[in-house]
Amino acid sequence: MGLPTSKHLPFVMGTVYPPVLCRLNGKAMERLRAECMPVMSAMRLAIDVDIRPATTQDLRALATWSGQVEPVFRPALESGDERVLLVARANQRFPIGHVFVDRRGIISHLVVLAGFRDQGLGSALLDEAESLLRDAGHATLMVEKTNEGAIRLYERRGYVRTGESVETWTEPAADGTMELIDHPSWVMRKEL
Ligand SMILES: CC(C)(COP(=O)(O)OP(=O)(O)OC[C@H]1O[C@@H](n2cnc3c(N)ncnc32)[C@H](O)[C@@H]1OP(=O)(O)O)[C@@H](O)C(=O)NCCC(=O)NCCS
């Protein structure tokens, strides 16, 4: 079957979602349009994933999707102090996840690239992060109160809420400028 032309598309969309169309804004409309596109072919890719401490060689590829490279990861790697950046690489090449560990007992910057979530990789990164903290005897992290998925993951792994905090970082505002935004967060801790 070929791709629908713009002539077909309103008909397809109108058939599938007539009641909601009128309430959709431009962005939602775009998403709906993308979902309505027929799949042209489908295949299953096999990838091997390894987790290991990052080197500065990993940073260029990481910087294509992680905003933490220049402000946090590079200075830490270059300082050679007790902080370790763990990266998960697909097929020993491209980084698809990371977690940052301060050997004094802090875990931060746990991220799995969107297309690779819900397959156990976040848990595997946490396993390795915690194994680096056995000597410290505990792991502490902060998670935004609105981040229900991550909180569920941490609680399932034995983290408990021990306090509250407000994390502040810059985000793009509607007018394109960057502004500092407060993010109310839980402090969570696990004894190791
Ligand atoms: C939080 C985050 C790191 C989790 O990574 P992840 O790889 O999806 O984590 P996991 O796959 O180990 O676990 C996530 C869910 O997938 C489920 N899962 C794990 N392995 C699975 C598998 N093989 N098949 C299906 N589901 C699976 C888990 O049970 C868990 O389910 P839940 O949502 O009901 O709790 C990821 O969602 C992310 O990067 N989010 C954006 C950044 C972020 O919020 N980071 C946390 C900052 S504190």
Low-confidence stretches: 1-19
Q: Kindly report the CATH topology of the largest domain.
A: Aminopeptidase
Q: What is the oligomeric state here?
A: single chain
Average of pLDDT: 87
Percent range of helical residues: 25-40%
Query: How does the major sheet shape up?
Result: 4 strands, antiparallel
Q: Determine the CATH superfamily of the largest domain.
A: Gcn5-related N-acetyltransferase (GNAT)
Per CATH, the class of the largest domain reads: Alpha Beta
Give the class from helix and strand content and strand pairing: alpha+beta
Which small-molecule species are bound to the chains here? Answer: coenzyme A
CATH architecture of the largest domain: 3-Layer(aba) Sandwich
Question: How many separate domains make up the residues?
Answer: 3
Would you list the SSEs in sequence order as H and E? HHHEHHEEEHEHEE
- Estimated share of beta-strand residues: 25-35%
Order of strands in the sheet with most strands: 1-2-3-4
Q: How many strands in all?
A: 7
Short description:
The chain is an alpha+beta fold and 192 residues long. It has 7 helices and 7 strands; from the N terminus they run H-H-H-E-H-H-E-E-E-H-E-H-E-E. The longest helix has 11 residues, at 26-36.
